[in-house]
Amino acid sequence: MSIADNIHRINAELAGTAARLCVVTKTHPVEKLEEAYAAGARCFGENRPQEMAAKQPQLPPDVEWHLIGQLQTNKVKLLAPFVHTIQSIDSGKLLREINKHAAANSRVINGLLQFHIAQEETKSGLSLPEAEEMLASEEYRQMQNVRLTGVMGVATFTHDEAQLRREFQQLRSYFEHLKATYFADDDAFRDISMGMSGDYPLAVAEGSTLVRVGSAIFGSR
Ligand SMILES: *Cc1c(COP(=O)(O)O)cnc(C)c1O
User: Fold this and answer.
1) Which one of 48, 103, 123, 185 has the fewest beta carbons within 10 angstroms of its own beta carbon?
2) With 70 as the cut, is the pLDDT of residue 104 above it?
């Protein structure tokens, strides 16, 4: 199967669901990204700021670049001129830095709050109380250049479907709570980014609006 075949197949699977596809392009050369673009993909996810910044000028300007990996505050500056969405906001410090650099570029940058939903200790993300503390703060309310558009999570690497479903349900319940409490009047807060190559059909069944798929499109890295 070619890259285009895979993208068309996944888009056909997602048709009629709430979910859209973000193609995870990390580690792949620009030629592969061009193939994905030609097949209609416009959302590209990368996990390394330098790699994303190097690829971005080589692709058409209507690509939505999504940062999906842990982001150090000192790398925000590199992405601020062009990044569409930072999916991996896991601290107030990072949120503050994104707002600052977006303002310096006269832009609004979208962000997802990343939650810790996996059993593995290593997967990063906020707890619900940490997120609520940020959202309730006066500092957050003053931020003009960052727009929170939803939540993101990475499930445990497992084939245990019941566990995956529980983790996706947990992320969805966080989303619903935050939506009702802080974003009831904000239509932009709408995304639940969950689901990867191994588990996206389950994530979609549990309400994902954005799946992040790499190896099912490009082959294994
Ligand atoms: C690499 C990565 C993906 C895509 O993983 P695949 O299994 O290749 O689909 C999705 N989300 C995050 C956060 C990633 O780092």
Assistant:
1) 185
2) yes
Domain total in the chain: 1
User: What are the two backbone dihedrals, phi and then psi, of residue 63, each rounded to the nearest 5 degrees?
Assistant: -70, 135
The DSSP bridge partners found for residue 210 are 20, 193
Domain limits at 142? Answer: 3-218
CATH number (domain holding residue 145):
3.20.20.10
Q: Which residues touch 113 (CB under 8 Å, ≥6 apart)?
A: 89, 90, 126, 131, 134, 148, 150, 151, 152, 178
Q: Which atom of ligand 1 is nearest to the CA of 88?
A: 13
Average model confidence (pLDDT) across the chain: 97
CB distance 47 to ligand 1 below 6 Å: yes
Q: Is the pTM of this model over 0.90?
A: yes
- Nearest atom (ligand 1) to Cα of 213: 9
Q: Taken in order 79, 100, 147, 193, is the CA torsion positive or negative?
A: positive
User: What's the Rg (C-alpha) of the chain?
Assistant: 17
Nearest to 208 by CA among 18, 56, 57: 18
Give every CB contact of residue 111 below 8 A, 6+ residues apart in sequence: 85, 86, 87, 89, 95, 98, 146, 147, 148, 149
Question: pLDDT grade, residue 124 (50/70/90)?
Answer: confident
Asked whether 88 and 66 are in contact (CB, 8 A), the reply is no
